[in-house]
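Structure, all two chains, one model.
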Amino acid sequence: DTEVTQTPKHLVMGMTNKKSLKCEQHMGHRAMYWYKQKAKKPPELMFVYSYEKLSINESVPSRFSPECPNSSLLNLHLHALQPEDSALYLCASSRGGLIVGTGELFFGEGSRLTVL
Amino acid sequence: DAKTTQPNSMESNEEEPVHLPCNHSTISGTDYIHWYRQLPSQGPEYVIHGLTSNVNNRMASLAIAEDRKSSTLILHRATLRDAAVYYCILRLGYQFYFGTGTSLTVIP
């Protein structure tokens, strides 16, 4: 069982809708990640938060807006998405700080997004 | 641009060892080599990682070339539950970038 919980598991939205994906972990990890995965492709890194501050933004369009309200929660706010944004969105966490580089990523099962 | 290259697919007979290769010729001295696998309809799962020395854990072994430009994930006895896409990743800090992965088929 994964220790990273993502909700909702499935989401269908129109191009004018505003929705959010949520991710939660209680392992005390201080780094949290959003990845996007299209069918039969590897996950692509979108954002990384370290100690609740945005550390990496891989030039993701502004219609995706991440938020890290505390050390256990990570949100991805969605607005004015396009059909090509339909994908599996994966959240992950890892230990941060001095042991960066050695710890592994723990992934959730993902939120499957369909944009109509 | 992928920092790692892997064969697209491999097959193995059940209960036989499997050697999954990965090339990472542009690896830097501080990049860690990570392996993950992804079963259908699940998020990726950590398998093993290393820096310079070979590593063993309950899931697999990781053999790292002396020049660190390649590595091999070794599953000692493949089972049907090992059928998955295996990703070789170079990690620098918070930067985990997945390569294209190898889809492993295990034949009963």
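The longest strand of chain A covers residues 18-25.
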